Amino acid sequence: MNQEYTFIFDKTPSRVRIQEHFPLIERICADFEQVSRSPLGQVLLVCDEHTEYMAQDILGMQELPRCVLPPGETAKHWMSVEAILGAAKEAGLGRDGLFIGLGGGMVSDLTAFAASIYMRGAGLCLVSTTLLGMVDATVGGKTGFDLFGMKNLAGTFYPAPLIYMPLDSLLGLPEAEWKSGMGELIKTAVLDDTEGLWERLRSLPPGGKPNLKDRVFQDNILACIVQAVRIKGRIVEADPKETGEERVRLNLGHTFAHALESAVGLGQVSHGEAVAWGMVRACELGYALGITPRDRGRAITSLIKGWAYETRVPYPLLEEPGKTEAFMRALEGDKKKKAGKLRFIVPCTQGVQAVFAEAIEAGLVERIISGA
Ligand SMILES: NC(=O)c1ccc[n+]([C@@H]2O[C@H](COP(=O)([O-])OP(=O)(O)OC[C@H]3O[C@@H](n4cnc5c(N)ncnc54)[C@H](O)[C@@H]3O)[C@@H](O)[C@H]2O)c1
């Protein structure tokens, strides 16, 4: 069942290991020395309160310096970065040290950011424990933390040379987190179907309670993760720092999603839930602009509804007074503007395409999100 895939981020190889069990610490260290071609110094394990229990699966009877963060998006702030840097200093890590991030996208984004600035760049290994982390967050070198109420306002590009995705970690994943990861998986299937991910997702029982004990479900999820990693890996190889037209495609649904997350308060809506809602809005924008064929938009929306995502407008939490205005302000501040211009990614006949906000009639986006 184990699969390995390497993609190159701007000349730096990232080796991804999708495997049944957790990697043991000896294995991680040996693999890291192999990929970095240099002897390893001190190691720091970073996790959150929900993923700490998995440390034992990696460490066995061994002890390692560790930094345990509070869980969830609300902890994705500078104080957590400082806590990681402080723990690294306390543990005596040098530039030859290794940060191991054990957790979902929150832990991996923060650990990778801290590793990228610690002594101008230390070793990094990510052990991903959420579906979202596996299919998206750990692949592609983006790191960061939330600042001034904006998601990932500060960050760096710092790809992990070594990434593990142990399926065992998903056994204890709460259903809401499965759903969150499914949102990013559906997004990946919409933007690139060369791997057959779209059909595979449609063949899964919709909204089905994940049953990792079931061999067929296990095989399907493994295949989905492998396909999503390959798709994202290829996109990142083609356009590592989102300076071209490739990587921006990954933002399908995200312009709406980030504004929603910011407007209702970070952590109130899971990232995948917001992306799913955002993809339906992107289809509606695409209809209005004559870019998204109706039958394609309907198929995307139906797959999203099948997983029981909130697709209504206005989003229930946006009904509170002042939230629509907050949404529009967050949109304006979206950092994915290029040359000061806001971009939306919408589905087209095959794949997706970018549309600049200036090509969109005034008031259309507001009507779409308010359902007016
Ligand atoms: N860097 C990127 O390219 C990129 C891409 C997409 C998303 N992200 C970021 O990823 C984050 C979302 O990732 P996420 O959904 O993994 O969130 P998360 O890391 O906050 O995890 C969600 C919840 O699940 C818990 N958890 C994690 N693994 C578990 C397990 N195996 N069993 C039980 N509980 C577990 C966590 O403690 C947390 O409470 C966001 O901050 C987002 O900005 C980054």
Walk me through the structure.
- The chain is α/β, with parallel strands linked by helices and 372 residues long.
- It has 2 domains: 3-173, Rossmann fold, CATH 3.40.50.1970; 247-370, Dehydroquinate synthase-like - alpha domain (Dehydroquinate synthase-like, alpha domain), CATH 1.20.1090.
- The protein is 42% helix and 16% strand.
- It has helices at 25-36, 55-59, 78-91, 105-117, 131-137, 175-191, 197-203, 215-238, 254-264, 271-288, 294-306, 323-332, 364-370; strands spanning 3-9, 12-19, 43-48, 66-69, 98-103, 123-128, 145-147, 150-154, 162-166, 343-347, 352-356.
- Strands 1-2-9-6-5-3-4 form a 7-stranded mixed sheet, sandwiched between helices.
- The protein starts with a strand and ends with a helix.
- The structure holds nicotinamide-adenine-dinucleotide.
- Nicotinamide-adenine-dinucleotide (NAD) binds at residues 48, 50-51, 71-73, 76, 103-107, 109, 129-130, 132-133, 136-137, 140, 142, 151-152, 169, 172-174, 177, 180, 271.
Summarize the model shown.
By secondary structure, the protein is of the alpha/beta class. It is 42% helix and 16% strand.
